[in-house]
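Batch manifest, entry 17 of 40.
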Amino acid sequence: MRSNNDDRREHYRLPIRVPIFVKGVDKYGNEYFELTHTVDVSASGACFFSKRALQATADLLVSIPAPVDINSNMSENYDFKFPAKIVRIHNGLANSSNRIAVRFTKPLYERP
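Output type: structure tokens
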């Protein structure tokens, strides 16, 4: 059992499943674009599934598609894009998906 002192995370993780797009370069040097979903999300990072073989510490771009009010000035296809760095990879044994933990380069609440 963990105590509150054992948890090194700066922000609370929300265990929510959100569809996301991930763009990056896999460990073989191939660029890829993948639709997947989160396991959890916090202001400073996220955990998601990926079928790609990725390199630890790789840089990624995580896009969260978001619906936009039709009365707003934004395009209907507006995405929230967050540069991120892989901090942990849990290789999946039962299936071909890996759990990828990333840290956003800026917390979500610091969006420009």
